[in-house]
Request: fold
Amino acid sequence: MGSAAQARGTTSDALTTVTLAELPAEAQATHRLILQGGPFPHGKDGTTFGNRERLLPRQARGFYHEYTVATPGTRGRGARRIVCGGRAIQRPDACYYTGDHYASFQKIAP
Reply:
């Protein structure tokens, strides 16, 4: 993973990149579900992500959607998410992984 400054970047160029294979198995499974269009295990999966932290590239409201990545041993949704953006939910323009509940993001390599 890159430096903390990279993780806190405000443009996609400042974010570190990670391959899908480098992510936890649960993140890989969530990514597959996103591309399949679900079904998703949590009611909040697929809801609009507001990017209030402004760590992802700025886009119009409704561009980003968030999905829960299961965290073994935790109750509830845990801290891990994948956030994807684009017009077609099943064919996102870009996806990002956060393992710390939006404190930092890594761009998932296409």
